[in-house]
Amino acid sequence: MTAPNLQFLIPNTQYPIPNTEYPIPNTSSAIIAAESAHTSGVYPKRPLAIVRGQGAYVWDADGREYIDCVGGQGAANLGHAHPAIIQTISAQAARLISCPEIFYNDQRARLLAKLIEVAPAGLERAFLCNSGAEAVEAAIKFARLSTGRPGVVAAMRGFHGRTMGALSATWSPQYRGPFEPLVPGFSHVPFNDLTALEGAVTGDTAAVLLEVVQGEGGVHPAQAEFLHGAQALCRERGALLILDEIQTGYGRTGKFFASQHFGIEPDLMTVAKSMAGGLPMGACLIGPRVGALPPMVHGSTFGGNPLACAAAIATLDAMRGHVPGTFRSAWHVTEALPDRAARLGSHLMARLAAIQSPLIREVRGLGLLVGVDLRVKVTPILQKLQTLGILALPAGSTVLRLLPPLVIEEGDLERVVDAVETVLAPGK
Ligand SMILES: Cc1ncc(COP(=O)(O)O)c(C=O)c1O
Q1: Protein residue whose Cα sits closest to atom 3 of ligand 1
Q2: pTM score
Q3: Which domain covers residue 381, as residue numbers?
Q4: Which residues fall within 8 angstroms of residue 292, CB to CB, at 6 or more apart?
Q5: CB of 137 shorter than 6 A to ligand 1
Q6: Residue 296 and residue 375 in one domain
Q7: Quick one: pLDDT at residue 3?
Q8: 161 pocket-lining for ligand 1 (C-beta < 6 Å)
Q9: Would you say the CB of residue 216 lies under 6 angstroms from ligand 1?
């Protein structure tokens, strides 16, 4: 038997930074100045330079530790520096990184089989890509191609990405406004309003596109009757149901995919974010009501690359608690992560709901996708949390969104609740 490669089990502070001819800025202020000189400007950045992560912690360049409830905006469900991901990426990088889909590849073949195994029933084909928006673009194109119809009905407050097709499905006027005219044929109905949906789906509708929990739009879970009604309506009127599980997938809500809480079988399903342990990857899963997709109708240079596929296989295994023996002892969580998200999420929501603060309107969510709806703007609250060592997200202007890695320890969630209670205390 060969000895385990312990190089991957050392704390990640010990990884050397590769040599470069440019001096590497190594304080927060130097990094912020250097990045600000050339960045595009499209991101409202926080003045924080994150340089390292482990589990549910990240550290800034000055060595300050934070509990990470941003979780890579949903890309870090597995936690930072998971040993199985480090090992897999390193090994696959040494073997093969690029292999376009004009060829077959061992990692891609394994990933597709494993992905279909965890997907809702009926989804037996997949198009692999590199981001959430790309997965949504693929779903829209496949729906139009398969039905020969142009229309897409999406939901108010829905978020599906920022490329032109995905943006046409995204609702917020703030994101859409500067880019009108968008792709024709898109309309929006109030979320959870089945009567409005019945009025909007016509013989021109290719697809109904919905999130199972609206994430960016304020953490609003779908009602079971709405999802079942949407599925029945699509089947009755010859449209396809596309579920966007880009934020809700990969264990986040307490099931591997959120649609599995409701027994919904979408015709197309989009995934991305945590799919490849934090590497960029997306996929559009395809069901039997979608016709055959002929060669050349869609494609992507990086789609299905072996590096991302290998990381995605390791992610699926680790999420389901199948951490190989070598890594098990080096990692603090071996429980299946969807179960952990369900358990910790209920506890977190109960603890947040018990906070006595006039600033809280409602606590809602599913699993570890949790929103605290406030009576005040959320930005100053996020800043106060940051000074207490907690990083969190907004969802709209008044909702505090917590999206921690699913491996977060119970004790750290308690610290998050204590910090939220402190910053929402009257007079703070
Ligand atoms: C539900 C949903 N769909 C699509 C996207 C877009 O994904 P990406 O940023 O990878 O393009 C997001 C991103 O936040 C999302 O939450």
Answers
A1: 160
A2: 0.95
A3: 335-390+409-428
A4: none
A5: no
A6: no
A7: 41
A8: yes
A9: yes
